[in-house]
Design goal:
The protein has 9 helices and 5 strands; from the N terminus they run βαβαβααβααβααα. The longest helix is centred in the N-terminal third of the chain and has 14 residues.
């Protein structure tokens, strides 16, 4: 099977995340996209995310009913700092015969040198880079330090073309704290959960 790996804090998940996952799944003909919420991002250790139980429930609400989306909580269950390479090794140990595609935002690409074992990440998975709204096209030359020319060409062939939506989880948290609307930026079920649980309010 061809499996997409989509990790992040998802605090909260929004329609931009959903569009990325569906576009990648469609363009690359993936059998499944695994949504893997991080317990603690290694590049955001100065920031404490929302309780993992709430983030998991928000994801369940957002992706429920999609036959090709699946929630994987191994990073939450593991606790501590969530290193992607550890998750990939765990996935491959469980399902060694699958083909893995690592979904990355252009902002993650910029920080690739700070990731744990980036060369091994590029060997074990096919990185798939998606541009973020409001940002220039991603420079895939960042991979040149970690892969040979043939692998770089293959990564470039997997570039994802999609509409750019300028939504961020950080902005959504701020909007909620300010009492502003997030309607149509998150699924209605997620909006209701955030309101009912009083999340992101000061």
């Amino acid at each position: 099977m061809r499996i997409g790996i989509y990790g992040g804090s998802f605090d909260p998940v929004h329609i931009g995340h959903l569009l990325v996952a569906e576009t990648v799944r469609d363009q690359l003909k993936l059998d499944k996209v695994l949504w893997i919420p991080a317990f603690q991002s290694p590049l955001k250790q100065e920031w404490l995310p929302t309780d993992s139980k709430d983030r998991v429930e928000i994801l369940r609400l957002a992706i429920g009913g999609h036959p090709h989306f699946e929630l994987d909580t191994r990073e939450i269950d593991r606790g501590g700092v969530s290193f992607t390479i550890d998750t990939i090794r765990s996935l491959q140990a469980d399902q060694p015969d699958h083909e893995w595609f690592l979904v990355m935002g252009a902002d993650s690409l910029i920080d690739l040198e700070r990731w744990k074992e980036p060369a091994e990440l590029c060997r074990l998975t096919m990185p798939v880079v998606v541009a973020r709204g409001g940002m220039p096209p991603p420079d895939l030359g960042h991979f040149a330090k970690f892969v040979d020319a043939d692998r770089l060409a293959t990564i470039q062939a997997h570039r994802i073309v999609m509409p750019e939506i300028e939504i961020s989880s950080r902005d959504l948290r701020l909007r909620v704290a300010q009492g502003r609307s997030i309607r149509y930026q998150v699924p209605a079920s997620v909006e209701a959960f955030i309101r009912n649980q009083q999340l992101y309010r000061k």
